[in-house]
Design brief:
- The chain is an alpha/beta fold.
- The chain has 2 domains: 2-221, 3-Layer(aba) Sandwich (Rossmann fold); 226-293, Alpha-Beta Plaits (2-Layer Sandwich).
- The chain is 36% helix and 28% strand.
- A hairpin with a 2-residue loop joins β1 (2-13) and β2.
- It is globular.
Amino acid sequence: MPIVEIRDLSKTFNGRKAVDRLNLTIEEGELFGLLGPNGAGKSTTVAMLSTVLQPTDGTAIVSGHDIRKRPKEVREIIGVVTQDVGLYDDLTAAENLAYFGKLHGVEGGKLRKRVNKILDIVQLKDRTKSRVKTFSGGMKHRLNLAVGLIHKPEILFLDEPTAGLDPAARLSVWELIKGFQAEGTTILLTTHYMEEADYLCDRVAIMDQGKIVALGTPAELKRSIGKLEVIEVKARAPKKLVAKLRKIRKVEKAEITSEGLRVLTPAADAVLSQVVKSLADEGVHMDSLNIIQPTLEDVFIKLTGRALRD
Protein backbone atom coordinates (compact mmCIF):
# COMPACT_ATOMS: atom_id res chain seq x y z
CA MET A 1 0.00 0.00 0.00
CA PRO A 2 1.50 3.40 -0.98
CA ILE A 3 2.45 5.62 1.94
CA VAL A 4 3.69 8.42 -0.36
CA GLU A 5 1.90 9.41 -3.58
CA ILE A 6 3.56 12.13 -5.64
CA ARG A 7 1.25 13.74 -8.19
CA ASP A 8 2.62 15.99 -10.96
CA LEU A 9 4.93 17.63 -8.42
CA SER A 10 6.84 20.59 -9.85
CA LYS A 11 9.09 23.37 -8.59
CA THR A 12 10.32 26.33 -10.61
CA PHE A 13 13.10 28.73 -9.57
CA ASN A 14 13.52 31.91 -11.65
CA GLY A 15 11.98 30.28 -14.69
CA ARG A 16 14.01 27.06 -14.37
CA LYS A 17 12.18 23.82 -13.54
CA ALA A 18 14.11 22.10 -10.76
CA VAL A 19 11.44 19.39 -10.53
CA ASP A 20 9.25 18.74 -13.55
CA ARG A 21 5.87 16.97 -13.11
CA LEU A 22 7.13 14.19 -10.88
CA ASN A 23 4.85 11.17 -10.38
CA LEU A 24 5.85 8.42 -7.94
CA THR A 25 4.48 6.09 -5.30
CA ILE A 26 6.47 4.75 -2.36
CA GLU A 27 5.18 1.66 -0.58
CA GLU A 28 4.90 1.36 3.20
CA GLY A 29 8.11 -0.12 4.63
CA GLU A 30 10.04 0.45 1.39
CA LEU A 31 13.55 1.87 1.14
CA PHE A 32 13.22 3.97 -1.99
CA GLY A 33 16.10 5.80 -3.64
CA LEU A 34 16.30 8.96 -5.74
CA LEU A 35 19.58 8.63 -7.63
CA GLY A 36 21.05 11.37 -9.78
CA PRO A 37 23.79 13.97 -10.14
CA ASN A 38 23.90 17.22 -8.20
CA GLY A 39 21.21 19.52 -9.57
CA ALA A 40 18.92 16.69 -10.70
CA GLY A 41 16.12 17.82 -8.36
CA LYS A 42 16.50 15.23 -5.60
CA SER A 43 16.92 17.61 -2.66
CA THR A 44 14.21 19.94 -3.99
CA THR A 45 11.83 16.97 -4.08
CA VAL A 46 12.59 16.10 -0.46
CA ALA A 47 12.19 19.75 0.56
CA MET A 48 8.70 19.79 -0.95
CA LEU A 49 7.69 16.43 0.55
CA SER A 50 8.84 17.61 3.98
CA THR A 51 6.89 20.91 3.52
CA VAL A 52 10.02 23.08 3.66
CA LEU A 53 9.33 24.28 0.11
CA GLN A 54 5.93 25.01 -1.42
CA PRO A 55 5.43 23.28 -4.80
CA THR A 56 4.87 25.44 -7.86
CA ASP A 57 2.43 22.85 -9.20
CA GLY A 58 1.11 19.45 -8.21
CA THR A 59 1.14 17.93 -4.76
CA ALA A 60 1.92 14.79 -2.76
CA ILE A 61 -0.01 12.72 -0.23
CA VAL A 62 2.14 11.59 2.70
CA SER A 63 0.46 8.96 4.86
CA GLY A 64 -2.94 10.36 3.93
CA HIS A 65 -2.00 14.04 4.37
CA ASP A 66 -1.77 16.50 1.47
CA ILE A 67 1.54 18.41 1.74
CA ARG A 68 -0.15 21.62 0.55
CA LYS A 69 -3.33 21.44 2.61
CA ARG A 70 -2.07 19.75 5.81
CA PRO A 71 1.65 20.56 6.21
CA LYS A 72 1.51 20.48 10.03
CA GLU A 73 0.20 16.92 10.04
CA VAL A 74 2.90 15.90 7.56
CA ARG A 75 5.69 17.36 9.72
CA GLU A 76 4.43 15.41 12.74
CA ILE A 77 4.91 12.02 11.08
CA ILE A 78 8.17 12.49 9.17
CA GLY A 79 11.83 12.63 10.09
CA VAL A 80 14.34 14.56 7.97
CA VAL A 81 18.10 14.09 7.87
CA THR A 82 20.14 16.30 5.53
CA GLN A 83 23.81 16.11 4.55
CA ASP A 84 24.43 19.23 6.67
CA VAL A 85 24.86 18.09 10.25
CA GLY A 86 22.50 20.20 12.40
CA LEU A 87 23.82 19.52 15.87
CA TYR A 88 24.87 21.75 18.77
CA ASP A 89 28.59 21.24 19.40
CA ASP A 90 28.52 22.42 23.02
CA LEU A 91 25.73 20.03 23.99
CA THR A 92 26.24 16.34 24.73
CA ALA A 93 24.82 13.59 22.53
CA ALA A 94 21.96 13.03 24.98
CA GLU A 95 21.26 16.76 25.32
CA ASN A 96 21.04 17.15 21.54
CA LEU A 97 18.55 14.32 21.26
CA ALA A 98 16.52 15.58 24.22
CA TYR A 99 16.34 19.06 22.68
CA PHE A 100 15.10 17.82 19.32
CA GLY A 101 12.79 15.31 20.99
CA LYS A 102 11.06 18.10 22.91
CA LEU A 103 10.63 20.06 19.68
CA HIS A 104 8.64 17.08 18.43
CA GLY A 105 6.58 16.88 21.60
CA VAL A 106 8.36 13.92 23.21
CA GLU A 107 8.63 14.55 26.98
CA GLY A 108 9.53 13.07 30.36
CA GLY A 109 10.20 9.39 30.86
CA LYS A 110 9.23 8.57 27.31
CA LEU A 111 11.91 10.96 26.04
CA ARG A 112 14.60 9.52 28.34
CA LYS A 113 13.84 5.97 27.18
CA ARG A 114 13.84 7.05 23.56
CA VAL A 115 17.19 8.87 23.91
CA ASN A 116 18.80 5.80 25.49
CA LYS A 117 17.40 3.45 22.86
CA ILE A 118 18.41 5.62 19.91
CA LEU A 119 21.94 6.16 21.21
CA ASP A 120 22.24 2.40 21.53
CA ILE A 121 20.98 1.87 17.96
CA VAL A 122 23.48 4.33 16.46
CA GLN A 123 26.29 2.87 18.60
CA LEU A 124 26.92 6.00 20.65
CA LYS A 125 25.73 4.80 24.07
CA ASP A 126 29.27 5.08 25.45
CA ARG A 127 29.37 8.76 24.37
CA THR A 128 26.04 9.77 25.93
CA LYS A 129 27.60 12.52 28.04
CA SER A 130 30.30 13.60 25.58
CA ARG A 131 30.04 16.99 23.90
CA VAL A 132 29.46 16.78 20.17
CA LYS A 133 32.50 18.95 19.42
CA THR A 134 34.64 15.97 20.48
CA PHE A 135 33.02 13.64 17.92
CA SER A 136 34.51 12.47 14.63
CA GLY A 137 32.69 13.19 11.35
CA GLY A 138 31.27 9.67 11.25
CA MET A 139 29.97 9.92 14.82
CA LYS A 140 28.29 13.24 14.04
CA HIS A 141 26.55 11.69 11.04
CA ARG A 142 25.29 8.82 13.19
CA LEU A 143 23.97 11.23 15.81
CA ASN A 144 22.39 13.29 13.03
CA LEU A 145 20.51 10.15 11.96
CA ALA A 146 19.43 9.64 15.56
CA VAL A 147 17.90 13.14 15.62
CA GLY A 148 15.72 12.23 12.65
CA LEU A 149 14.42 9.17 14.51
CA ILE A 150 13.92 10.57 18.01
CA HIS A 151 10.12 10.92 17.61
CA LYS A 152 9.63 7.54 15.84
CA PRO A 153 8.56 8.93 12.45
CA GLU A 154 6.51 6.87 10.02
CA ILE A 155 8.65 8.08 7.13
CA LEU A 156 12.31 9.07 7.17
CA PHE A 157 13.72 11.36 4.48
CA LEU A 158 17.49 10.96 4.11
CA ASP A 159 19.00 13.62 1.84
CA GLU A 160 22.57 12.61 0.89
CA PRO A 161 23.17 11.20 4.41
CA THR A 162 26.70 9.92 3.71
CA ALA A 163 28.09 12.84 1.68
CA GLY A 164 31.69 13.54 2.66
CA LEU A 165 32.18 10.38 4.73
CA ASP A 166 35.11 8.02 4.26
CA PRO A 167 34.28 4.48 3.03
CA ALA A 168 34.35 2.88 6.51
CA ALA A 169 32.05 5.52 8.03
CA ARG A 170 29.75 5.31 5.00
CA LEU A 171 29.40 1.54 5.42
CA SER A 172 28.56 2.02 9.09
CA VAL A 173 25.77 4.46 8.19
CA TRP A 174 24.48 2.05 5.52
CA GLU A 175 24.08 -0.69 8.11
CA LEU A 176 22.20 1.69 10.40
CA ILE A 177 19.84 2.66 7.58
CA LYS A 178 19.15 -1.01 6.87
CA GLY A 179 18.37 -1.47 10.55
CA PHE A 180 15.89 1.43 10.56
CA GLN A 181 14.02 -0.16 7.66
CA ALA A 182 13.99 -3.54 9.41
CA GLU A 183 12.16 -1.87 12.31
CA GLY A 184 9.36 -0.84 9.90
CA THR A 185 10.34 2.72 8.96
CA THR A 186 9.64 3.77 5.37
CA ILE A 187 12.72 5.52 3.98
CA LEU A 188 13.24 7.87 1.04
CA LEU A 189 16.95 8.22 0.32
CA THR A 190 18.57 10.69 -2.09
CA THR A 191 22.10 9.98 -3.27
CA HIS A 192 24.55 10.46 -6.11
CA TYR A 193 26.50 7.39 -5.02
CA MET A 194 25.48 4.56 -7.36
CA GLU A 195 26.86 1.89 -5.02
CA GLU A 196 24.80 3.32 -2.15
CA ALA A 197 21.56 3.07 -4.12
CA ASP A 198 22.47 -0.41 -5.36
CA TYR A 199 23.25 -1.71 -1.87
CA LEU A 200 20.43 -0.12 0.10
CA CYS A 201 17.37 0.43 -2.05
CA ASP A 202 14.41 -1.80 -2.85
CA ARG A 203 13.60 0.45 -5.81
CA VAL A 204 15.38 3.37 -7.43
CA ALA A 205 14.20 6.30 -9.52
CA ILE A 206 17.02 7.82 -11.57
CA MET A 207 16.53 11.58 -11.87
CA ASP A 208 18.03 13.97 -14.38
CA GLN A 209 17.14 17.63 -14.93
CA GLY A 210 14.07 17.40 -12.70
CA LYS A 211 12.57 14.33 -14.36
CA ILE A 212 12.58 10.59 -13.76
CA VAL A 213 14.42 8.86 -16.58
CA ALA A 214 14.24 5.30 -15.18
CA LEU A 215 12.44 3.47 -12.38
CA GLY A 216 12.78 -0.04 -10.99
CA THR A 217 14.77 -2.29 -8.71
CA PRO A 218 18.55 -1.96 -9.06
CA ALA A 219 18.63 -5.36 -10.77
CA GLU A 220 15.85 -4.40 -13.20
CA LEU A 221 17.58 -1.14 -14.11
CA LYS A 222 20.87 -2.87 -14.82
CA ARG A 223 19.12 -5.49 -16.95
CA SER A 224 17.29 -2.75 -18.86
CA ILE A 225 20.42 -1.71 -20.75
CA GLY A 226 20.69 -5.17 -22.29
CA LYS A 227 23.48 -7.68 -22.17
CA LEU A 228 26.21 -5.09 -21.96
CA GLU A 229 29.64 -5.41 -20.43
CA VAL A 230 31.88 -2.63 -19.23
CA ILE A 231 35.53 -2.21 -20.10
CA GLU A 232 36.93 -0.12 -17.26
CA VAL A 233 40.34 1.44 -17.77
CA LYS A 234 42.32 3.25 -15.10
CA ALA A 235 44.47 5.77 -16.93
CA ARG A 236 45.00 9.47 -17.52
CA ALA A 237 43.02 9.65 -20.76
CA PRO A 238 42.47 12.71 -23.00
CA LYS A 239 38.89 13.65 -23.84
CA LYS A 240 39.56 13.38 -27.58
CA LEU A 241 40.02 9.64 -27.11
CA VAL A 242 36.29 9.23 -26.40
CA ALA A 243 35.30 10.21 -29.95
CA LYS A 244 37.73 7.65 -31.33
CA LEU A 245 36.41 4.87 -29.08
CA ARG A 246 32.80 5.62 -30.03
CA LYS A 247 33.62 4.88 -33.68
CA ILE A 248 34.61 1.30 -32.85
CA ARG A 249 31.97 -1.17 -34.05
CA LYS A 250 29.89 -2.59 -31.16
CA VAL A 251 30.91 0.18 -28.74
CA GLU A 252 27.63 1.67 -27.50
CA LYS A 253 28.99 4.26 -25.07
CA ALA A 254 32.39 5.61 -24.07
CA GLU A 255 32.93 8.08 -21.25
CA ILE A 256 35.76 9.73 -19.35
CA THR A 257 35.51 9.04 -15.60
CA SER A 258 37.37 10.39 -12.59
CA GLU A 259 39.74 7.40 -12.79
CA GLY A 260 39.97 6.89 -16.54
CA LEU A 261 37.53 5.42 -19.07
CA ARG A 262 34.38 3.30 -19.19
CA VAL A 263 33.32 1.63 -22.43
CA LEU A 264 29.92 -0.09 -22.75
CA THR A 265 29.65 -2.88 -25.29
CA PRO A 266 27.70 -6.13 -25.86
CA ALA A 267 30.94 -7.82 -26.97
CA ALA A 268 33.85 -6.89 -24.73
CA ASP A 269 36.15 -9.63 -26.03
CA ALA A 270 35.58 -8.54 -29.63
CA VAL A 271 36.38 -4.85 -29.10
CA LEU A 272 39.03 -5.15 -26.39
CA SER A 273 42.01 -5.21 -28.75
CA GLN A 274 40.73 -2.13 -30.60
CA VAL A 275 40.26 -0.24 -27.33
CA VAL A 276 43.80 -1.10 -26.25
CA LYS A 277 45.17 -0.07 -29.66
CA SER A 278 43.33 3.27 -29.48
CA LEU A 279 44.87 3.92 -26.07
CA ALA A 280 48.32 3.03 -27.35
CA ASP A 281 47.93 5.23 -30.44
CA GLU A 282 47.22 8.19 -28.15
CA GLY A 283 50.20 7.35 -25.93
CA VAL A 284 47.99 6.55 -22.94
CA HIS A 285 49.60 4.43 -20.22
CA MET A 286 47.11 2.09 -18.51
CA ASP A 287 47.33 1.42 -14.77
CA SER A 288 44.72 -1.36 -15.08
CA LEU A 289 41.99 -2.72 -17.36
CA ASN A 290 39.00 -4.80 -16.26
CA ILE A 291 35.83 -6.20 -17.80
CA ILE A 292 32.98 -5.84 -15.32
CA GLN A 293 29.19 -6.08 -15.20
CA PRO A 294 27.11 -2.89 -15.65
CA THR A 295 26.33 -0.67 -12.68
CA LEU A 296 23.65 1.96 -12.08
CA GLU A 297 26.20 4.49 -13.35
CA ASP A 298 26.17 2.67 -16.68
CA VAL A 299 22.37 2.83 -16.75
CA PHE A 300 22.61 6.61 -16.30
CA ILE A 301 25.27 6.90 -19.02
CA LYS A 302 23.17 4.85 -21.42
CA LEU A 303 20.09 7.00 -20.77
CA THR A 304 21.67 10.46 -20.70
CA GLY A 305 24.97 10.15 -22.54
CA ARG A 306 27.07 11.38 -19.64
CA ALA A 307 28.46 10.18 -16.34
CA LEU A 308 26.43 10.36 -13.14
CA ARG A 309 28.92 12.69 -11.44
CA ASP A 310 29.53 15.09 -14.34
